[in-house]
Design goal:
Layout: E1 9-11, E2 16-25, E3 31-37, E4 53-58, E5 64-69, E6 71-75, E7 83-89, H1 99-106, E8 112-116, E9 120-122, E10 130-136, H2 140-150, E11 156-162, E12 179-185, H3 189-198, E13 206-213, H4 214-227, E14 235-241
Parallel strand pairs: 10-11, 10-13, 11-12, 13-14
Antiparallel strand pairs: 1-9, 2-3, 2-8, 3-7, 4-5, 4-8, 6-7
Helix pairs in contact: 3-4
Length: about 260
């Protein structure tokens, strides 16, 4: 018998692609949308809702560093040729933040960016009755991918931990009658979202996606996996960043004292 929420895994040939910036957009306050193109996109695929590619940036000291980002859209049939669209949340605003945010804030058409991967994709489960998402700004492109993937017919509840309420405008196009969006200030979000999860019914058909600052997700994951006893396949949790840690590996366990089984 196939486990509920089983996810098909797809492997991709690992490639580094040198792409050029085609255009820059501002989809919401605090975000920069970069459309990339080039012949090197031949063979690119990222069908999973939380797929990650590695982007290569100058580190300011003559070297380079890599950061993981979720592709928002990959369009083979764009008018000017294949396009890969990546959205950047500007940590620290236009002038602050790390190398990735600074690059995105200053990017212009014609600039080059090296994109590596993805190495593989985890497709969305096909048997989701309801979707619950918990995320901060860094994970909003993944949230959009999840909502697009499950479709507007699947009920969804999204809990947002936001540094600035204006950033919620990023999800405006995802509004639908059976979707609910709840916003909380980042400073108090972990406790408020935990209480919201305790106050609601989570059924065996509910799939939960958690993504954002790693330490803020620990109590949420503990409640879902240990107190409620939800199986591993029903809760997909990712620490996209960790306060005080540069270049945090999002593959690292959310809670090192309680690794997934």
């Amino acid at each position: 018998m196939t486990e509920r929420f089983a996810r098909e895994r797809v492997r991709h040939e690992l490639a580094r692609r040198s792409l050029r910036v085609l255009r820059i957009e501002r989809p919401a306050p605090g975000f920069v949308r970069v459309a990339l193109g080039g012949e090197a996109l031949d063979g690119f695929a990222a069908p999973g809702p939380a797929d990650h590619v590695k982007l290569v940036f100058p580190d300011g000291a003559g070297g380079t560093l890599m950061r993981d980002y979720t592709p928002l859209v990959f369009a083979l049939d764009a008018p000017g040729g294949p396009e890969l669209v990546i959205d950047f949340y500007l940590h620290g605003g236009e002038a602050g933040g790390g190398p990735a945010s600074r690059w995105a804030a200053g990017a212009e058409p014609g600039d080059e960016l090296v994109v590596a991967g993805p190495r593989g994709s985890a497709l969305a489960p096909r048997d989701i009755d309801e979707l619950i998402v918990v995320a901060d700004e860094t994970a909003l492109p993944s949230v959009m991918r999840w909502l697009d993937t499950v479709g507007a017919e699947t009920p969804a509840t999204v809990y947002l931990a936001l540094e600035d309420e204006r950033h919620a405008a990023y999800l405006d196009r995802a509004a639908a009658p059976n979707r609910a969006f709840h916003r909380f200030p980042a400073s108090t979000a972990a406790a408020a979202i935990l209480q919201a999860l305790r106050d609601r019914r989570i059924t065996e058909g509910t799939f939960v996606f958690l993504a954002g600052e790693a330490t803020a997700l620990v109590p949420l994951r503990r409640y879902l996996r240990r107190e409620l006893g939800l199986p591993k396949a029903q809760v997909d949790a990712h620490g996209y960043w960790k306060r005080g840690t540069a270049g945090h590996d999002h593959h690292a366990p959310i809670d090192e004292t309680d690794p997934d089984d």
